[in-house]
Amino acid sequence: MNDRASVTLLEVAPRDGFQSIAEPLPTEEKIAIVEMLLDAGVTRMELGSFVSPKAIPQMGDMAKIAAHFKGREGCKLSVLVPNAKGASLALEAGYPDLVFVVSVSEAHNLNNVRQTVAQSLDQLRAIVSEAGTGGEGIRVDLATSFDCPFEGTVPLDDVRRVFAEALEIAPKAEFALCDTTGRADPLTVARRFETVMADGPAGAVWAFHGHDTFGMGVANALFAHSVGVSIIEGAAAGLGGCPFAPGATGNTATEDLHFAFEEGGVATGIDRTKLLAAADRIAALPGGKTASHLRIVPRQRAVA
Ligand code: COA
Ligand code: ZN
User: Fold this and answer.
1) How far is CA 39 from the centre of its chain?
2) 251 in ligand 1 pocket by Cβ < 6 Å?
3) SS3 sequence, 135-190?
4) 304 C-alpha to center of ligand 2: Å?
5) Own/partner pairs, 241-244, CB within 8 angstroms, 24+ separation
6) 69 alpha carbon to ligand 1 midpoint, in Å?
7) What's the angle, vertex CA 108, arms to CA 183 and CA 255, rounded to 5?
8) Would you list the domain boundaries of the chain?
9) Could you tell me the pLDDT band of residue 1, with boundaries at 50, 70 and 90?
10) N or C end of the chain: smaller count of CB under 10 Å?
11) According to the model, what pLDDT value does residue 245 have?
12) Which of 47, 52, 61 has most ligand 1 atoms within 8 Å of its beta carbon, as the pocket-test mutant?
């Protein structure tokens, strides 16, 4: 549970955002943007993913980026992995903080990682038993926890079942319900979290990964936080549009989340002026699709 007086805004622009830009970005540009986000006070970030370069060529320079930020103090930098091979590469690169992704919907999992949900859970089992820590340090992203681009509304019972199986494999992991398509609504987000959190151990750490396709991103985040979710994910400038969720737009803009929480007295630890500067640089990337309210407000009013 969270104390409701603070929230951790976990930045995913370098992973969910950068993978959406067709032409891979120069590594130096990615590194410069991550440095700006860290300088703004971001303490949790997905740096990228160890995935097949055929599936996501945009992450082909992951090892170089990982080497640059290895051992950076004062923040927890994680990398997304879709299978045991990705986990080995991450550990070799010095990144024990893994984000393992499995979709609740079979169709999305097959499309995203070319495995059934059961096969993905076997990969998680292999990763956890290799590490021998019950999943500590691992974050399990339950993709399509609300809506699937291929199957529509995802039944809550399916979310509970996949969560129960993942929890048995990785009882000490952190878990996220992900609104992969950005179609969830705030009340459903709150209710699903309440139900699934009650299925898990008391004191577990939960995250919400949201996209803003239907304009509900900020409201969804606030409702998730109000029922005890302590980690809210966003992408600076709202960069994104998942290649495996046709029609979805980017993650909710981190600066919009920052405004929503901070104005209500919920501390983020992030400097808004610096965050907006990083968002501006992201918005200037050729080929990127961005969406942000705060960036288009006159800057003086946005930071006042
Ligand atoms: N990192 C790097 N390379 C990997 C890899 C990983 N995690 N997993 C597999 N590969 C390589 C294999 O070594 C093999 O290489 P080769 O052709 O040189 O022999 C090739 O990729 C194919 O391996 P295979 O196990 O058959 O994978 P696949 O083609 O069935 O693809 C995934 C499965 C999971 C690797 C691929 O779909 C993927 O990377 N998906 C990522 C999706 C994603 O990130 N989505 C957004 C996040 S939600
Ligand atoms: Zn996403």
Assistant:
1) 20
2) no
3) CCCEEEEEECCCEECCCEECCHHHHHHHHHHHHHHCCCCEEEEEECCCCCCHHHHH
4) 30
5) 241/20, 241/289, 242/16, 242/19, 242/20, 242/180, 242/211, 243/19, 243/20, 243/56, 244/108, 244/111, 244/112, 244/149
6) 23
7) 40
8) 8-302
9) very low
10) C
11) 76
12) 52
pLDDT of residue 3: 74
Write the single-letter amino acid at 294.
Answer: L
Ligand 1 pocket, 103 CB below 6 A? Answer: no
Note the ligand closest to the C-alpha atom of 113. Answer: 1
CATH superfamily of 8-302: Aldolase class I (3.20.20.70)
What per-residue confidence (pLDDT) applies to 244? 75
Q: Is 56 in the pocket of ligand 1 (CB under 6 A)?
A: yes
Does ligand 1 lie within 6 Å of residue 101's CB atom? yes
Spatial separation of the C-alpha atoms in residues 169 and 15, rounded to whole Å: 25
What does DSSP assign to residue 91? Answer: H
pLDDT tens profile 155-195? 999 999 999 999 999 999 999 999 999 999 999 999 999 99
Question: How many angstroms separate the alpha carbon of residue 233 from the centre of ligand 2?
Answer: 9
Q: Which ligand is nearest to the CA of 142?
A: 1
Overall residue count recorded for the chain in this entry: 304
Q: Report the alpha-carbon angle 174-207-198, nearest 5.
A: 75
Which ligand is closest to the CA of 52, given by its number? 1
Range of weakest confidence among 66-80, 144-158, 192-206, 241-255: 241-255
Residues carrying an active site annotation: 242
- pLDDT for position 2: 58
Q: Residue type for 292, please?
A: S
